[in-house]
Amino acid sequence: MSGLLFNTAFAFYVAGLGFSTLVFFSNKTTLFRLAVITVGIGFGLHSGFLIASAVETAHFPLTGLRDSLAFFAWTVSLCFFVSYVRYRIRALSTFLLPAVAALMLGTVFLKASPIKPMLSSAWLYVHTPLMFLAYGMFLVTFVAGVLYVFEERELKNKKPKTFYYQLPSLTTLDDLFLKFLVAGFCFMTAGLLTGIVWAEQDWVNGWHKDPKVVSAMVTWCIYLALIYLRLTAGWRGKRAAVVSMAGFLWVLFTYLGASYFGGLHQF
Amino acid sequence: MHPVLVGLSHKTAPIEIRERVAFREEAVTSALAALRRDYQIRESMILSTCNRVEILAQGRDDEEAIAGIKDFLYRYHSLEPDSLEQYLYALRERDAVVHVFRVASSLDSMVPGEAQILGQLKQAYAVSGQSGAAGTALKALLPSAFRVAKRVRTDTGISQSAVSVSSVAVELARKIFGSLKGKSVLLLGAGKMAELATRSLVRSGISRVFVASRTEARSQQLASLFGATSIPMADLEERLPESDILLVSTSSDSYILGPETVNDAVHRRKYAPLFIIDIAVPRNVNPRVNQIENVFLYDIDDLQTVIGANLRERRREAELAEEIVRQESERHMQRIASMSLGPLIAGLRGRLEEICLAQLEPGRQGMNDTDSTRMEQILRKTARRIAHPIIMEIKSPAQDPQRRLHNIQMIKQAFDLDKGE
To answer: N or C, where is chain B less crowded by C-beta within 10 Å?
Structure first.
């Protein structure tokens, strides 16, 4: 049951991505509605998959790289919907939906990993979703930053092209950027705090030397610096986009690369 | 039946011809009356704008009507047929429908997507209605055209992008700031063009206007016009950080604003964007200002470039609109065709019922009332059942018009349906 849900969700995501790509190049508004509906169905099926597989295996599917990729895809599409409902920026889909599809595709190549005993704790269901929601929001932040730079460049060069016609105002993009940045930061802070409490309870000493923990702390500092610079020194546009890109790359490293260096986060 | 259309436009005729053929507003009613009186034109409408003169008409016969309208144009404007004929187009049936839809949707306009033409067309239709010159043919076509125009406007971006200097200024400001509410504009110098642009900005929600001009009187005049605050030229540097949009149009022949001043202002604005429009010639703002982060400097040529790009964008959207017009004209043709099938269908149903009921007559004596009513009901139902597949067949949209016409003729002959008309 859950496998079927997952595969159909994947298919709907891919179809939605196809429609939104067509929209980007042909600018047919009616088609975009179709894209949003398709991705919406995909998201619904994906949520169904999460619930069904939680019921089937008696634990929430969050306990391995394969599960977490799928969950990350779910938070990204959740963030896409939240941002779309609030801002109606069609171009967001052009950047976020490929990420969703790529994350879903990643799961195809991975086997489900057995559950490590140390993960059978209620903290798993608090710490991990918080972190992935934060990551999803940081991805939106990054995309908003990039879109800002694209539109700013067209406005500066005085050559209105694709982005000029497809995007809302710079101020709107900046607003989206800042809101998702701050929200992502709050979620990440909460995620880190719950992680610390969990580690203090269950884990061996020295968790603070775990590469993933250190890496996540660095990520947190990058975003803290970005918020500070944005609010006090008015950093926006290219500088903010570069920092948010660095931040998100660090997120990816934390997520996928840090456990390569050993440590406790081996799943 | 579809009306015919005879006319000329900016695409076929130069201005010298268009102005000679144009109808003055007050002359239209009498011209419509003349068409009806002298040329047996049953319905007519005259659309006369600076870019086109078109007469839409319904006569007894299409060719007769076209010839009549042409003759009317020659006589009315005292022109030689030879001098005018080459500029005129005459459209019938589907071509006329498509043309009216395209004109209403502003696809045939000089600037595609401009909104005026639809208003002019509505006005022309209203005048035709008031003069009693609009009948079933025009009443079927024009409301459809208005609906198509509305659909084109909402479903495509054909009229969205700005194509005049002041509207481009507003569009750019919106691209940078989003909503213009709470934003302020500082006018430096006060030419006519600056005034126009300010008017557009104020209409789009700008809340505060400051004016600094060398001539005190003009400054005061603008101040009273927009409820603006007049400030001395010397305060420019001090005021700059509070302004979101700077509109420069002084008659100075050298730069009055350089990178240093703007850099300082932007820093004090905490890098909130600053939009500078320099419509002065020679330019008043050093072009290097555009390199400063979050500053967008547009001179008059840049605004023209954006207008050019927007026109290309409108033409791109016009392709989508053409598709809508194609679909809608097809739908309209079908609707009209099925409408004229109405009498035929009613006639056929009646005739079949008649034939069936006639079979009852010889046996009616031997039946009681209940039986004969029952039989009558059954026979009526049978007639309807027989008629149904025939009606479905002639109504079928898949049929090609030639064959449909042939089938209609055949049914009319076979059931002797023409005699009632």
So the answer is: C
